[in-house]
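> call design_seq(struct)
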């Protein structure tokens, strides 16, 4: 009887360990998916930031060019008045 009880106890322990292992594997897979989702979101935010920086640079260049054009026209107008 003792051998049979020991065997049954070991079988139950093995089943418990297998269930625990399966739970851990599922938890690991879930965490890895969460990490992937977080990294994808981080990439989207980084892409949006880069796009905003490019747009900001373009706007600054446009402003600089317009300021240069206005200053050039002003200098020509002042020269015309002095002549």
């Amino acid at each position: 009887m003792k051998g049979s009880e020991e065997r049954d106890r070991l079988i139950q322990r093995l089943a418990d360990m297998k269930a625990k292992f399966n739970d851990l594997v599922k938890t690991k897979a879930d965490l890895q998916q969460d990490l992937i989702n977080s990294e994808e979101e981080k990439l989207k935010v980084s892409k949006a930031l880069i796009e905003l920086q490019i747009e900001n640079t373009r706007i600054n260049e446009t402003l600089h060019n317009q300021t240069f054009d206005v200053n050039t026209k002003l200098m020509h107008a002042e020269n015309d008045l002095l002549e």
